[in-house]
């Protein structure tokens, strides 16, 4: 008897083959997509340093290959290393370039892995404004000599500031207690801080400097140096500002009734993220964790804008 093949069996086999092919193709595509996702994630980890696609090293072909400064009466060559963007947006896509730095070193980049002491110099993007100095490998270096006095260390600081044309006009030394100075020295360094204010309100422009107890500079941070110079001399109606702060806090607690201010706050003059000059208040808050029970929680920021007395919350 001749064996017959039913059309159903043939169709069934074709269907099985088609399903198998789709599954196989889907697996290959899924694997490819997974690898693609993995590669993208890996690239994200390499390129994106602080969580935004623009943070990290960016190209800056206009950066000079070298700079020359005068240290202790002698010319010193600085060599370009990279341009570092520590802002969520690229320079040119925001209202100023603060947060982006052209980074230089006092040795050629190819010698930076030799283990010796050298310094990194951070300039405001495409400018001659120095904002930061960092010593590299200084912690393991031998002392340059005996412990220097605080006055001697401050004189060393002044010589660095002069060499890099850092203008100290308007900066006021922060007064540290004798105990704090002694504690710093026990930890091996002298610490200095210089501050500015606008009409009696702290300005977001200070310098923080550490000098090793042998007189060697460890670090200098002045990340907003010259940023507010054109605004200096403005007056601040603090009574009006505080009234608007009350309005801002009242609106916030009305929208989020589980929060209330705890009575603590600090303030400083700064630009908001749109470039509006403002007084930024950092207000201590409490959260109602259960009916009638309040606990301190993280602070909330409020900008009171000086030009129009409007306000905004800090996200």
Structure description:
Residues 1-10, 12-16, 19-25 and 27-51 have low confidence and may be disordered. By secondary structure, the chain is α+β, with helices and mostly antiparallel strands. The longest helix has 41 residues, at 7-47. It has four helices and 14 strands. The strands form two sheets. Strands 1, 2, 3, 4, 5, 6, 7, 8, 9 and 10 form a ten-stranded antiparallel sheet that branches.
What labels would you give this structure?
36% strand; alpha+beta; 315 residues; 26% helix; globular; four-stranded antiparallel β-sheet; 14 strands
Question: What is the compact description of this entry?
Answer:
The protein is an alpha+beta fold and 315 residues long. The chain contains 4 helices and 14 strands. The radius of gyration is 29 Å and the shape is globular.
Largest sheet: 10 strands, antiparallel
Distance between the termini: 84 Å
Query: What is the rounded Rg?
Result: 29 Å
Q: What is the helix tally?
A: 4
The share of residues in helices is 25-40%
Question: How is the topology of this model organized?
Answer:
Layout: H1 7-47, E1 56-58, E2 66-71, E3 74-85, E4 100-105, E5 118-124, E6 130-136, H2 150-163, E7 172-173, H3 178-186, E8 189-198, E9 201-212, E10 217-221, H4 238-255, E11 259-271, E12 277-290, E13 293-305, E14 311-313
Antiparallel strand pairs: 1-3, 2-3, 3-4, 4-5, 5-6, 6-10, 7-8, 8-9, 9-10, 11-12, 12-13, 13-14
